[in-house]
Every structure is written in C-alpha cells, then in structure tokens.
C-alpha cells in the first residue's frame, strides 16, 4: 500500500532570501540531523542572467535500522538524489528527491517548496509532500515501512527547527538581510562550509529529504488548509474570520493547527489535511470545520479510511434530519424545562464547558411517557450542538484548543425505577446516536454519589459506549468526591454546585415526578415521533442493477426551474433527466427478481415503460452525469416545454475491459455479490417559477445543502452558460 504525507503550510517570519541563506548552511552536512551523513554536488548550472539555478546532489543517509537488516540488504548507507531549482526572480525553491538505493524494490518520492507568503512578502512559506511504495524487501516489507515512517516523522518535526537554528546563526554572524535578486545583479555567492568528506562521494544536508521513511497508511490527495500564519492581533477582521471558520480554498497553516486544534504529530497533521482535501473535492460547499473532522480522526486513531466512512455517514445523517438547524428550530417543551434535571454550568479547570446532570432526581419513566423517545433524543442532540458552540467560544476565550466538554452526573436518588425497561431502551438509543455523530466530544465524565444499584445500570449501558470514552469515566461513591483527588481537582471550588456542598447556585430544575396527567397514549407518541423525525426535505431511494429509481415532475408552465440536491450514500449511479409529453403509467415498485432483492415500498420507483423508445416517446434533456459514492450533487434545469420530466438515478455499470472481450476478474466477482448491485441516494427536488429562482436564469444557489453549525461555507453557487447546470 502506498503511504502518503502532506504537510501543512509552515511559515518563517523571515524574507525568502534570508531563509535561502539559512538553507544553504545545511550543506554539505548537518550536525542537527545525525543520519544525514554527507552529500556531493553532482551537477550545477545557472542561466545567463543568474535568476535560475539548478543543483543536483547525491546524498547519503545512515538509516537507524537493525544491524541484521542492514547486513541482509548489503548496504551501509541509503543514497538519495536531490534536485533543487531556485528561481530568484519568482522567489521560489522547488526540491524533488527520490531514492537511488533499492529503487527497484522501494519507491520514495518527495517534493518540497519554499515560496513567498501570499499576504506578506517579508515572510516565507514551506510545503512538503511525500510518498512511499514498498514493492518488496526480502520479506521485511512491514519492518522497513515502520522504520521509514518513524524516521520520516522525526525528520519532519526537526525541519523547521533546523532552519530557525541557521537563521539565528546568520544573525549571530551579523547577517540580518540578503538583498533580492535584480536583473542587473549576479547571484551573490553564499558562504559554504568546507566538506568533511573531501573525497567522499557524498556531502550536504537536505531540508527534509530523509531516508526510507514516509507517513501513515492512508489514501488521499494533496494538502488543503487555511491562511498562512499571522498574529491574530495584526490580521484584518475579514481574514481573521476566514482563518477561524475555514473555507474550501484555504491552506492549513502549522501555527493555526497548534493554536486552534492542538499539538498534532506530523502524520496526524497529514491525515487531517488529506481528509479535508477529500471532503472539499466530494462535498463542495459543505466542508465541516477542522475541529469536527479532527474528532472523527481521533475516534478512529487517525485511520483515515475508517474516519472518512463514519464522518460521511454522520454528514448524511445531519443533512437528512436537518441537525444543523436544530438550535434555531428546536424549543424544549415545557415538561422538559420543568423536569429535565440537566444544564450547562460554567467550565472546568481546563476551560472545558461543564454540563451538570442530576440523573438521580430525574423521572426518566415520566419523561419518556410524557414526551416520547424522539423528543428526548432531539433534546439531547440540542445539548450536544450547544456543546460544540461553547467549545468554539471557550477556544477563543482561553486562547488554547478546547474541543470537548466535561459532564458531571449526580446519581443521588438513583433506584430501580430508573431501570424501567423502555427508559433504558431510550437511553441506549441516545448513546448510540451520540457515539456515532459526536465522537471525542466528551473530555471527562465525573459520576458522583454512585449508589449500590449503579453497577446494574453500568452493566446494561457500558457495552454501548466506546472503549476510549469509557476510559474518561471517573466514578465516586458516597462522599468520596469531597476529599483529596475528588471534585476540586477538576472544578474550581467557587463553581461547585450548592447541592454538592459547594458555594455556587446551580440553575438546574429540581426534577421530581412528572404528573401522570401529562402522560400520552402510545398512539399519540407514535404520531408525534413520526412528525418529529420525518421533518426532512430529503427522501431516500435504492437503485438496483436493471432497476433505476425515477421521479416524476409535472411542469405546467414552460421556463420553470427544476432544482435538485442529492448525496450518493452508497455505490455509483448515472443521473439523467428526460422529458415526455405523455404521462407515464402508474409506477412499478418491484425490484428485479433475478437478484432476489425485496425493496421497501416506495424506495425504488420505475416510470419509463420498457416499450417506450428514446427519441420518440421521451427525450433526454441533459447529458448523463456519473456520480460517485460519497459525492454531493446540486443542480438545476430550466424547462423549455410543459409536460412530464423524469429524474432518473441509474446503476452505473463499470466499463468492460477494452483490450479484450473476456470479462475482468473484478466484474466476475462483482456479479457474485448482491450488495454490489445496490446503490443508495438521498435526494431533494423543488420546482420554482422563473421569477422565484434565486439570482438569474443562469445561476444556481443550493440553500438546502449547508451544514450551518459545522461549516462556514454552507452553500455553493455556480454559474452556467446553458439552460441547465449540474455542480458537484
């Protein structure tokens, strides 16, 4: 598997020319990187006006590997070829490196770039990408990969420190300014230390061209990120806002990561950048905030494939149930305001928002009977959404990354009544939803005054709680929380609630039994639950091989605008739009019997009769669009004629091998798997009159695709020169 690395933008608050002078001091050897043994200039050439210089070096690295492995490989040093291209006019240095040793077994490629900061030409930016592909290595492929990743990560970490060291050395030598290149000037020779290996075929030291090393196993693409590093005090308000919220086109800067996201290893930074880039390419205009992406990465130990899967599922869930608008649209029923014994209460010693829940005083049975499971779930989701908002606020207030909150649960009063089966069922479902969509938001859970019945409850719920989350639980029985190592270690004494023998008044309902007069019948609760959780403008459909899903839209007035917004939850489809003057027959809902698949009613609808002929009975009005799994697609079509328009999502058949008529192995295997013949799409459509269409007749603004709480860029807008437009 190819390992990839993408760095954030690292910023030196020094001019490009001075950084280049510091960079040259790293050659021919560098005592700060012991494994960089030596290097030798193989070729050097400068153009006539001196604006461009290309240097090729052969570098030797003493890889820290087991002696036995070195003996088996038959080498003492690993050699790399480094090509540097310095453009003094454009003020850029491009570095390309690849391994010479074992090049037929291991492929290592690295590119680096020094350039001028786009907002401040007195600063210098540095970016770096690398890849490692181990084809074979005497049966030690896994060992070599681990060694490579470890050493590469360590060299990345030292990279900026080394440049800063030589910048200080220049300053100590009285060099604080290097003039810029001008057409009339020749390049100034920089002092180069004499080689320690006068006859050795190797000598200098590279920026970040380490040995057989590279990062985490994950596939993704280039970097992405935020603004280049600046002190927030000197930034204009609009730029500061952009840095804090993030936009799809910006670059993540290393100082921004440290200030707002925390201390990450180089490989963790790379995972964040590459997952963010992938989201930009497939979820245009709806990119979650960096801290939210980071939570999902942490929840899967920075395995990018696993994190991407659960993040996409969560984004689809948020969109389907409009969770982004929950804080604006949800108002707690009066019974919750009176009897739900929980609320936000200042913050803990680490600056995390503090949520207090007096579970022992809560009538869980009464709340479930009076409100239903769905209302309780929605209330808990609103608490989590509020927690995300408070984390952002506290990050700004305390000047350090705060991405989770602390929960204090008081169990005084907990008894067998709380183990009422429907109540436990509701609790387990809430835990399941929160675990899936708010990972790594709980920093610490303080459980106080746990009674004897608590182990029974814990046995029921603990299997549904992630292992990493369980490690954050601290349980105190009786009054143990009042002694050393208790509550005062985590919460300032001044804000300990009064009901815990503290001095701070806590504005949380006292709770008590919910009057039975407020209980609702099962039928009422079921109807209310349906009303609450089907309040979504999106519909789901399944697409099978040989059975597309089709949606009929009748247009009365020409020049109406059909708009759509859909997400590919599973599989690849081809999206088509057809027009017909005749109304299709009543829809067929039977999926193809050949696969033995039973589709839910209304989940797969087919409208186009098999006897219809394309070009006679109906016509295609848009070019087919292939939509890949994970993509989000928005678009519009301006109708030219009245009649019946059919939106079709059709199973995408992979193209057969062009070189032979024989089926490919992959195709044969796919036919054996029923799951490979099913796709899932979540869609929303709307028909607008031309006078109601936002903007002009050639623009689209999709206002139903945003993630308002998780993304600064909540909508996407695209321009089209034709009457129809599809934007990804």
TrEMBL record:
PROSITE patterns: CRAL_TRIO, GOLD, PRELI_MSF1
Residues annotated as domain GOLD: 534-687
Segments traversing the membrane: none
CC per GO annotation: cytosol
Domain CRAL-TRIO, residue spans: 332-508
One family name in Pfam for this protein: CRAL_TRIO_N
InterPro entries: CRAL-TRIO_dom (IPR001251), CRAL-TRIO_dom_sf (IPR036865), CRAL/TRIO_N_dom (IPR011074), CRAL/TRIO_N_dom_sf (IPR036273), GOLD_dom (IPR009038), GOLD_dom_sf (IPR036598), PRELI/MSF1_dom (IPR006797), SEC14/CRAL-TRIO_domain (IPR051064)
Every PRELI/MSF1 domain range: 3-175
Gene Ontology molecular functions: RIG-I binding
SUPFAM superfamilies: CRAL/TRIO domain, CRAL/TRIO N-terminal domain, Supernatant protein factor (SPF), C-terminal domain
GO biological process: negative regulation of RIG-I signaling pathway
The protein, known as: SEC14-like protein 1 isoform X2
């Amino acid at each position: 598997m190819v390992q990839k690395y993408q760095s954030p933008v690292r910023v030196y608050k020094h001019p490009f020319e001075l950084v280049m002078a510091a960079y040259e001091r790293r050659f021919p050897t560098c005592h700060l990187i012991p494994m960089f043994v030596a290097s030798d200039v193989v070729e050097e050439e400068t153009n006539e006006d001196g604006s461009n210089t290309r240097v090729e070096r052969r570098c030797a690295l003493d890889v820290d590997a087991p002696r036995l492995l070195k003996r088996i490989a038959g080498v003492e040093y690993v050699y790399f070829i480094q090509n540097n291209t310095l453009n003094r006019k454009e003020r850029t240095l491009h570095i390309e490196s690849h391994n010479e040793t074992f090049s037929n077994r291991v492929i290592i490629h690295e590119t680096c770039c020094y350039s001028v900061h786009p907002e401040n030409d007195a600063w210098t930016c540095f970016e770096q990408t690398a890849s490692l592909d181990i084809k074979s290595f005497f049966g030690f492929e896994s060992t070599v990969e681990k060694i490579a990743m470890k050493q590469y990560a360590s060299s990345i970490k030292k990279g900026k420190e080394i440049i800063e060291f030589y910048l200080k050395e220049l300053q100590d030598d009285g060099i604080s300014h290097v003039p810029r290149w001008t057409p009339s000037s020749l390049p100034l020779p920089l002092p180069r230390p004499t080689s320690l290996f006068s006859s050795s075929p190797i000598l200098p030291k590279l920026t970040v061209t380490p040995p057989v090393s590279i990062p985490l196993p994950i596939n993704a693409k280039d970097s992405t990120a935020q603004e280049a590093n600046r002190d927030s005090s000197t930034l204009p308000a609009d730029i500061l806002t952009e840095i804090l919220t993030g936009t799809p086109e910006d670059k993540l800067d290393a100082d921004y990561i440290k200030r707002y996201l925390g201390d990450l290893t180089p490989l963790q930074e790379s995972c964040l950048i590459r997952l963010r880039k992938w989201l930009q390419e497939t979820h245009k205009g709806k990119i979650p905030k960096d801290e939210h992406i980071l939570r999902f990465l942490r929840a899967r130990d920075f395995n990018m494939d696993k994190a991407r899967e659960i993040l996409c599922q969560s984004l689809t869930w948020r969109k389907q149930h409009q969770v982004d608008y929950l804080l604006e649209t949800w108002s707690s029923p009066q019974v919750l305001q009176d009897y739900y014994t929980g609320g936000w209460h200042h913050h803990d010693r680490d600056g995390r928002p503090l949520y207090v829940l007096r579970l022992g005083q809560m009538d869980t049975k009464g709340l479930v009977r009076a409100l239903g499971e769905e209302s309780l779930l929605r209330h808990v989701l609103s608490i989590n959404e509020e927690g995300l908002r408070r984390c952002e606020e506290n990050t700004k207030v305390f000047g350090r990354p705060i991405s989770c909150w602390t929960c204090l649960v008081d169990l005084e009063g907990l008894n067998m009544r709380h183990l009422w089966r429907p109540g436990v069922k509701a609790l387990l479902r809430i835990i399941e939803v929160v675990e899936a969509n708010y990972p790594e938001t709980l920093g610490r859970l303080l459980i106080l005054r746990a009674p004897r019945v608590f182990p029974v409850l814990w046995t029921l719920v603990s299997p549904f709680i992630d292992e990493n989350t369980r490690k954050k639980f601290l349980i105190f029985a009786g009054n143990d929380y009042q002694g050393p190592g208790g509550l005062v270690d985590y919460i300032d004494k001044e804000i300990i609630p009064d009901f815990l023998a503290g001095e701070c008044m806590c504005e949380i309902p006292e709770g008590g039994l919910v009057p039975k007069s407020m209980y609702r019948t099962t039928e009422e609760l079921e109807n209310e639950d349906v009303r609450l959780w089907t309040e979504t403008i999106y519909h789901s459909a399944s697409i099978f091989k040989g059975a597309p899903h089709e949606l009929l839209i009748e247009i009365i007035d020409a020049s109406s605008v059909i708009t759509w917004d859909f997400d590919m939850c599973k599989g690849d489809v081809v999206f088509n739009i057809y027009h017909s003057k005749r109304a299709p027959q009543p829809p067929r809902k039977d999926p193809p019997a050949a696969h033995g698949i039973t589709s839910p009613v209304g989940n797969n609808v087919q409208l186009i009769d098999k006897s219809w002929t394309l070009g006679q009975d109906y016509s295609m009005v848009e070019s087919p669009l292939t939509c890949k799994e994970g993509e989000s697609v928005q678009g519009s079509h301006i109708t030219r004629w009245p009649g019946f328009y059919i939106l079709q999502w059709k199973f995408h058949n992979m193209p057969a091998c062009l070189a032979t008529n024989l089926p490919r192995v992959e195709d044969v295997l796919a036919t054996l798997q029923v799951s490979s013949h099913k796709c899932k799409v979540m869609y929303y459509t709307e028909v607008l009159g031309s006078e109601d269409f936002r903007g002009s007749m050639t623009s689209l603004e999709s206002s139903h695709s945003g993630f308002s709480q998780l993304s600064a860029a909540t909508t996407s807008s695209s321009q089209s020169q034709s009457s129809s437009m599809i934007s990804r």
